[in-house]
User: Fold these one by one.
Assistant:
Number 1:
Amino acid sequence: MPVLSRFKFCLFALLIVSYIVGVVVLSAFSLHGLKKANIPLGSKNKAVSFQRPQIPRRLKTNYDYSSGALRPVLKRSRIQWCSDLKFVPSEEDLGPQKPVALVSFPGSGNTWLRYLLQQATGYYTGSVYKDYGLLKNGFPAESIVNSSVLAVKTHEWGNNARSMFSKAVLLVRAPDKAIHAEFNRQSGGHIGFASPDRYRRSNGKYWKQFVTDNLRGWQQLSMDWLHNFTGPLHVIFYEQLVANTEYTLKSVIHFLGVYVPAKKFDCAIERKEGIYRRKKRLLRFDPFNSEMKERIKEVQEKVYSAIYKIASPEGKR
């Protein structure tokens, strides 16, 4: 046999021997480990799975976040509350009750009014929506729609939206201000602003269409709740809430039928600004042209006339 061929044969044999020795050693270590851990070996046809033991978490005194159950605050809120927030005590003798609607067109100050009510009463307010920003910062009852909360935020209208509620607070803001606030919210969040470029998008067509669509929605929501809601209805104006917060807030609390100690109410007024009121910002241009202003004025007068008619002694429910 040539020297080169003999060398290759020896090398191959050495590799085979090394492989066999390695398998035997590893098997011995594995079997030793299983026996030491007192883990029974499976048969050839059974697989043995090894999982990390599940250590039960230490339970906290929290409640489930589903279908109106009590909820914990997800994290420490930046808001200083006048008292610890809680859910409205249930009246078992009355049975299930429909909640109270806190209805408004977007951009009308719904979140601020919710904040004021929570400060004054110490009760959570709910929402038909689930805004995670609000959920984590002062409104842990987001998405709860039942009588365990003081009132429920909604921007909806129509029979399905109205039929969920027994009473309603309708918060109305001048349409131009509400539409502008909603435009800012969609562009910059609850307290941010739209950049000037947003108004000029598509040569101004985007902003013009936004005003047209939202003005129609502002009118439909207001008229629907004014004329078609069959339960008790309390109408307040956002401008009134700003100018005379104390009086307007008292009127809402009285309508809701909640007792609030004077000390707690005074605390709510002292902290009335909160963190969810958008600061004023002056634009160097008027976003509303003459055509928009004329149409806004026409719609606003129509809705306000309906409000005053319903609020008059002859029109009261």
Number 2:
Amino acid sequence: MSGRSNARKQPKVKEKVIIDENNPMLRAFQAYAKELDAKHDRYERIVKLSRDITIEAKRIIFLLHSIDSRKGNKDKVLEEAQQRLEKVIKVNFKAVAQELQNLDPYQYRGAYAPGLQEFIEAYSFMEYMRYADDNQTSMSDWQQLQGKMQYTEAETNDEISAEMKEHKLSFHVEPSEYILGISDLSGELMRRCINSLGSGETDTCLLICKVLQHLYKGYIGLSIPRCRELSRKIHTMRQSVLKAEDVCYNVKVRGGEAAKWGLESEKPNVDIDEGFF
């Protein structure tokens, strides 16, 4: 009995597994692992670049809201905003274009889309503030923005030759991302409308309300396949239109005293079905 118990207690000796480093299957999976690691690292770098773009775009939007006719600072603010937006194009988006060089940009769309939409919002808001007083409400389309995001880099042909050669690359501006970015402009226009009411610029309130109505009318007729964000953005845009209309209602009814009364305390009726939802 004792012999049997001792035999049971003895641990089993595991056979040493010999891995063939030259096995083609093993080499293939090692190559896949390196490729996935490189893709994940690149994705994280693009996320960080997109976050920097988002932060700078928000700061530029905040700067544009500081335009006040009573201070006469419009030209100064617009010039600074223009320079900062151009810097974002030349530095931040160029860095993203370098990361996506010779790659499918749609694989990394989730990484750079938030920054791109925020930039488009800031850029279109800058254009509106520049041309609104001249009754020019047109803005750059996605192709014009695409044209601004073309870059050239100098590189040598080989390690021995010192001859420099220009290499072209670009950042891809997807039309659907442009549409989503422009839809966010409605929120900034609504805030500008409310701020204009507080400063007594009632004509600006009426003008912005018309622009928002025109913008919303165009968006409810859009149909973009595989774009789940669109319906949510249009719903948000509708709230902005209702708030701007409420401001204009105050202007029409109360006239010069509208700024003292501000917006109505009651929320607008958001349950009205306009046939879109």
